[in-house]
Amino acid sequence: MNPVIMKKLAKPLLFFAAFIWGMSFFVMKNTLDSIPVFWLLTFRFAVGGLLLGLVCSFIWHPKLTKDDVWRGGLLGILLFLAYSVQTFGLVYTTPSNNAFLTTVYCVLVPFLYWGISHQKPDRFHLMAALFCVVGVGLVSITGQFTIAIGDSLTLLCALFYALHIVAVNHLSDGKNIYVLTAVQFTVVALCSAIGGMLTQPFPIHVFTDSSMIFPLFYLCVLATTVALLFQNVGQVWSDPSSASVILSLESVFGVLFSVVFYGDPVTPRLLLGFGFIFFAVLCSETKFSFLQKKKTPNSCSCDTL
C-alpha cells in the first residue's frame, strides 16, 4: 500500500474507531443484561477473527508464520486483559469513574513508548495528554470520586490498553497488520471462551432471541472487526502518542450519543470538558504550527546582516 496515502488515512481511521466505540456504549449496556461478560467477548472476537480471516485469505493469501503467531498472540493477550479487566471493573465502580480512569492510558502511552523506543515525548504530547485527561474527567465524572476496588481494576485496565497501543506499534513493524489483527481476535476469543466455560453459564437463549440480532451485529462486526482493524492499521501509520489522544475521544462520543438518544442535559461542565479535549487534540495533531508566522520571501534575519 502507498505509504503516503496510508499516513493520510491513519488518523481518520483512528477517529472513526473512537466514533464506533462511543456509539457502542448504550448497545453494550443493554446487551450485558442478557449475555455474561466472557461469552459476549467470545462472540465478538470469534466473529471478528472469522470475518477478518476470510478477508485475508481471499485478498492477500497470506502464509501464517510462527512469528505472526507469537506477535499476534501477545497482542491478543494484552487486548483480552484490557477488555476483561475494564468490564469487571465496571461492576464495582460507576460508569463515569470507569470512563475517566480508562482514559489515563493516553498519559501512560508516551512514557511506555519512551521506554521501548528511547524516543522522548515532546512537550506537546505531554500537554495534550494532560489536557485530555482533565477534559474527559469533566465530561465523565459526576458526584464524589473515590478509589475503590473497581477504580483500581480500571486503572489496571488503562495500563493494559496503553501496553497494547505501544505493543501494536512495536510488534507490527514490517508485518501484515491484517494477519496480526486476525490472530489477536482469535486469541481473545479463545481466552474469553475458557473464562466463560470456567466461570459463567453459556447463554443459549441468545440464538433464539431476535432482539439480540442487531446488538450482536453491531458489537461483532462494527465495534470489534471494523473498529479494532481501524485502530491497528491507524496506529501502524501514526505515532502512539497521537493515536492514544484520538482514541480517547471514544468517551466523548459516548456522552454525545447519550445526550442525543437519551436526552441527557448539556451542562457547563460538559462544555468545558469538550473544550479541554478539543484543545488536547489540536495540541497533539498540529503542535500549534498554524500560530507560527510564516516568513515571506523578502524577509531576512539578523544573521544575514
What's the gyration radius in Å? 21 Å
Helical run tally: 12
Helix content: over 70%
H-E string: HHHHHHHHHHHH
Poorly predicted tracts of residues: 299-305
**What is the general shape?**
globular
Number of strands: 0
| N-C termini distance | 48 Å
Structure overview:
By secondary structure, the protein is mainly alpha-helical. The protein has one domain. 75% of the residues lie in helices and 0% in strands. Helix 4 packs antiparallel against helix 6 and helix 8 packs across helix 9. The longest helix is centred in the N-terminal third of the chain and has 29 residues, at 3-31. The radius of gyration is 21 Å and the shape is globular.
Which features characterize this protein?
305 residues, mainly alpha, 12 helices, disordered C terminus
Write the layout of secondary structure elements.
Blueprint: H1 3-31, H2 37-59, H3 66-91, H4 95-102, H5 105-117, H6 123-140, H7 149-171, H8 177-199, H9 213-236, H10 240-247, H11 249-262, H12 268-286
Helix pairs in contact: 1-9, 1-10, 1-11, 2-8, 2-9, 3-7, 3-8, 4-6, 4-7, 5-7, 5-10, 6-10, 6-12, 8-9, 10-12
Structure summarized in a few sentences:
This protein is mostly helical and about 300 residues long. It has helices at about 5-30, 35-60, 65-90, 95-100, 105-115, 125-140, 150-170, 175-200, 215-235, 240-245, 250-260, 270-285.
